[in-house]
Structures are given as C-alpha cells and as structure tokens.
Specification:
Strand order of the largest sheet: 3-4-5-7-6
Shape: elongated
Radius of gyration: 36 Å
Helix content: 55-70%
Distance between the termini: 31 Å
Largest sheet: 5 strands, mixed
Number of helices: 15
Low-confidence stretches: 1-20
Order of helices and strands: HHHHHHHHEEHHHHHEHEEHEE
Mean pLDDT: 79
Structural class: alpha+beta
C-alpha cells in the first residue's frame, strides 16, 4: 500500500562494491548495476510512453466525440480501466528496474450492481484519473530523459574506450582517427596522437561520470511520478491504516473483555460461590455445632477478603483509581512498588495528557514491568516519562539478560500493535546480555 523506494537492494550493492573496491561512490557509479538498470528503464520509457500517450489521446477524443450519444461515458470508463491496467505494468517495470515497490491504488467502490454502477465507480475514482494523467504527462519527460541520457552515456563510453577502437579509422575508413575539424580545403584535425587519444579518454571519463549521475537524477524523477500518480493516494493509504488500527482496537477490546470475564469466572465468582456454600453449611450447623459453625464463618470471612482483593485487582486492571485521581506519577510508582525488582520512577510532566493516552501509557509501563519481573532476570530497572513537543515519551530500562525481540511474537509485538493503533511507536533495544531499553512514543492529544 505504502510506497517503498527499496533502497536496501542498491545499498547492498554499494556496500559490497565498497568493500571489494576502494573507489569512492561518485567514481563507482558508472559500473554499478543500479546505473545500468536505470539506464535500461529510461531507454524503455520512450516507446512505452509513446504508446501510453497515444492510447490516452485516443480514449479522451473518442469518448468526447461520443458524448452526444450514450456510448461516450462507458467508453471513457473503459479507457480509464485500461489505463489502470497499463499502470500496473508500469509499476512492475519500476519494481524490476528501479527497485521501487509501489502498492496498488485503492480499489473501485461500486454502489450497486450492473454496468452503470461500475461506470460510476470508475469515473469517481481518483486513481483512474491519475493513471490517465500519467499517460499524458510522461511522454515529454520520457523524451527528454531518453535523448539526454542516450547522448551523454553513449558518447562518454565511446570516448572513454576510444583507445580500444581507434584502429577502426585507419583500417577501414582511411583516416587516422576521429575528425574534429575539416573545412574541405585540406585543413582538418584528427584525434590520432597519443596525447590527443589520452585527452579523448579523459573527456570520456568525465562525461561518463556526469552521465551516470544524470541517469540517476532522471530515474529519481520517474520514481516520484510512478509513486505519486500510479500508487495509492495519501488519503486512501491513511484510510486503510485507520481501518487496520480500528481492527486492532476492536480485537484488543474484545481480548480485554474476555480476560475480564475469565478473571471474574475463575477468581472472584468462584470464591463467592464457595463462600455462599460455606455460609449455607455454617447456617445449618449453627444450632447443632456452634463451634464448627463459627470456624466456618471465620473461613468465609477470609474468603471475602480474598474476593475483595481480587475484585480490587481486577478493577485496577480495568482502570486504576490512583491514575484518575493523582495522575501518572503516583500510578506508575504504585505499579513499580509491586515489581519483583527495585524500580526507580522519574515523571517530568507539567500537565496531564489526554485521559485515553494516560491510560495507554500506564498499561504500557505495567506490561513492561511485568515482563521484567517474569523474564528479564534483572537486578534494577527504571521508568522515565517526559514530554517532547506534542508527544509523550516513555522509557523503561533494566539490567537483565536482554534478547527481547518483538518480531518473535512475544507480548512486545501485541504492545507495539496497541501503540500503533493510536499513532504511537515502540522501539526495543535489547542486545543479548542486556541491558534492555524499551522506548514508547505516544501522541499527547490535549
């Protein structure tokens, strides 16, 4: 969906060649595979863009001419759909030669069934018109990049390799070399002496170096055009992200409800059932065996205390009262006191963030401290909270064994998804052997 310029492939090529050839990158550009792929892309662009331009002009003029009849609009819709198909081929070409991975544009959203619903969806789609615009605008740019790249690239290599093919002139053309000047009166200048050949080679080297970076510049413009006109719009990408985030929020809320139901069923509810049964038995033995009944009531009293504690813990897990009443400083100090390792808490906030963000920050630190208690084997930990512009920053550090990796599907992965649902970021730095530093960034939204 999102545009990815795929610099990784080119970076790997550059790093490989840098390790094996101690040549600066500007001098290495003419022989890198990236440059040759981009040159091939520019050479193919002209014939392809001629076809695209001709197709777009025919589509527009034919549909405009048929507007007096009913056929004009369906013809235009069909032409726009064909442009979308040709755009898919262009994205594939850019992916193969430019290393540019552009997602498909947003799909058509037809309201209803039938031909007219489909035509309306095509005409209302901004992506369809962007594909048509690409077909119209790419030809002038393709012509310029084709001519300039071809002239400079071929001329540069011919001059650079001139010592290798200079023998062709005296052997087959009966001239000593390339003729730079001739007036028809016997006055002429040929590049044939060793000094002149060396000068031509130097000029060819300079031209090749300049041409290589010109090709990269032209290809970068093509990347912008392909990603901007043939890919998804920023609005559509944002809508997809929000839909995905909404799904994460719904799944998280459902998981929390299931957890609460399970805790109630297995914890407080089971204790209350046992308590009711115990009090019933005590009531029956009250007259027959008062001492046994008193012991059973005393045991039931203990069960009541445990049930109340479980209910308090459950309520604290839903939303702690200390967070609502006293803010993050007191709430984080409370959960730090329950951690199995000593935790220092530093909260530097002039005001409180939005209530929802404050709750997410609390549960983020709570889960990270639980991970430290269960897995880190740490001796000390710290929690730092501060504000940076419009962002709330959290950092939890421990001196444990390290090796935490969200990519392995641990609780950190779920935590990262929760933060992403509110435009937050989770960064984990946990080398084997430690220390582990987890930094969370949340919007302030106040």
């Amino acid at each position: 969906m999102a545009t990815d310029h795929r610099p990784d492939r080119y970076d790997r090529d550059d790093r490989y060649e840098h390790r094996n050839r101690r040549v600066p990158s500007p001098l290495r550009a003419p022989i890198e595979s990236r440059t040759w792929r981009e040159f091939g892309y520019l050479m193919l662009s002209l014939p392809i863009s001629v076809f695209l331009f001709a197709f777009a002009i025919i589509t527009v003029t034919l549909s405009a001419g048929l507007l007096v009849t009913f056929l004009g609009i369906p013809v235009l819709a069909a032409g726009l759909m064909a442009c979308r198909g040709l755009g898919a081929l262009e994205r594939a070409r850019a992916r193969a030669l430019l290393g540019l991975d552009v997602g498909r544009p947003e799909p058509l959203r037809a309201r209803g069934e039938g031909l007219m619903a489909w035509v309306g969806a095509v005409l209302k789609s901004g992506a369809s018109w962007r594909h048509l615009l690409y077909a119209l605008l790419h030809l002038p740019w393709a012509l310029v990049s084709f001519v300039v790249s071809l002239v400079f690239w071929v001329t540069g290599w011919l001059l650079l390799l001139y010592p290798l093919w200079q023998w062709v002139f005296p052997t087959y053309l009966d001239t000593p070399g390339i003729q730079l000047y001739g007036d028809g009166a016997g006055n002429s200048f040929y590049v044939d002496t060793p000094f002149e050949i060396a000068g031509a080679t130097a000029a060819g080297l300079a031209t090749v170096l300049v041409a290589a970076w010109m090709i990269r510049g032209f290809a970068q413009v093509d990347r912008v055009m392909v990603s901007g006109l043939l890919g998804p719009s920023r609005l559509a990408t944002r809508v997809v992200e929000l839909e995905s985030d909404r799904g994460v929020v719904i799944d998280t809320a459902a998981a929390d409800l299931r957890r609460i139901e399970r805790d109630l069923h297995d914890g407080a509810q089971a204790r209350l059932v046992a308590l009711a049964m115990g009090l019933g038995l005590a009531k029956e033995k009250l007259l027959e065996d008062p001492e046994t009944a008193a012991a059973m009531v005393d045991e039931a009293h203990g069960e009541v205390k445990l049930a109340l504690q479980e209910l308090r813990d459950l309520a604290r897990g839903i939303h702690p009262a200390v967070l609502t009443d006293r803010g993050l400083d007191a709430a984080l100090s409370s959960i730090a006191s329950r951690c199995t390792v000593p935790v220092s808490v530093e909260v530097d906030l002039d005001e409180r963030p939005a209530q929802a963000i404050e709750g997410i920050a609390y549960f983020t630190v709570s889960e990270l401290l639980q991970n430290i208690s269960k897995h880190a084997q740490a001796r000390n930990a710290s929690v730092d909270v501060w504000r940076s512009g419009s962002r709330l920053m959290l950092q939890v550090t421990d001196d444990g064994r390290g090796g935490a990796n969200p990519a392995e599907g641990s609780g950190l992965a779920g935590l990262a998804e929760r933060l992403d649902a509110v435009d937050g970021i989770l960064a984990v730095d946990s080398p084997p052997g430690g220390p582990t530093t987890v930094t969370a960034e949340l919007p302030w939204r106040r």
